[in-house]
Amino acid sequence: QSALTQPASVSGSPGQSIVISCTGTSSDLGDYKYVSWYQQHPGKAPKLIIYDVSNRPSGVSDRFSGSKSGNTASLTISGLQAEDEANYYCFSYTTTNTRLFGGGTKLTVL
Amino acid sequence: QVQLVESGGGMVQPGRSLRLSCAASGLTFRKYGMHWVRQAPGKGLEWVTFIRHDDSNKYYDDSVKGRFTVSRDNSKNMVFLQIDSLRAEDSAVYYCARDRDDHYFDYWGQGALVTVSS
């Protein structure tokens, strides 16, 4: 099964907002409200920032928000900060009981 | 607090086998499913396998089916990943991660590096 589709890179200036999209199919992302997002800094383990489309775990800044429409999920980061520079991955359950990551998006804070 | 610690990584020759371990602490291990996720050098995350809390079901990505085997020992709070017939493309950092509600991870280990090379 092919990875979910994310843009390879996005960028923004401090204080701005950016959106990272994640596109799947009706066999994965489109069929479920089970999209999660992970932030990964170089050399570190990934960190959960959004689960079940739009829920934030305790301790995650409210500058991070998620949404979904049809086969596309989106992660919005508002009020960009230098520490947000990282790689971001979406993740979904699939109809075959497997799981699937997006290809990853490198966020650069200019 | 929840801690997941992987071990068993290293450099292995192609065709050989390797078993990774993940030791869990700070949680009631028998209540949680566990995943393995890998990341090749400079590449993205790739989901590998999931084992349910009670070992009732196991799921694998098609790319590893038949060569990878996940298992767990709830009495020792450990999950394992057996990798057979290792290939160069299996070279990666392997993470174990705790499952929540069957569809996301809330805790990750620090990862174990596996390098397949002759």
If you had to describe this structure to a student in words, what would you say it looks like?
The complex is a heterodimer of chains A (110) and B (118). Chain A is an all-beta fold. In chain A, the strands form 2 sheets. In chain A, strands 1, 3, 4, 7, 8 and 9 form a 6-stranded mixed β-sheet that branches. Chain A has a 3-stranded antiparallel β-sheet with strand order 2-6-5, with no helix packed on it. Chain A is globular and about 40 Å long. The mean pLDDT of chain A is 94. Classes of the chains: A mainly beta (110), B mainly beta (118). The interface between A and B is medium-sized, with 27 and 24 residues.
Q: Provide mean pLDDT of chain B, rounded.
A: 96
Order of helices and strands of chain B: EEEEEEEEEEE
Low-confidence stretches of chain B: none
Distance between the termini of chain B: 40 Å
Shape, principal axes of CA atoms of chain A: globular
**SSE topology string of chain A:** EEEEEEEEE
What would you say about this model in short?
The complex is a heterodimer of chains A (110) and B (118). Chain A is mainly beta and 110 residues long.
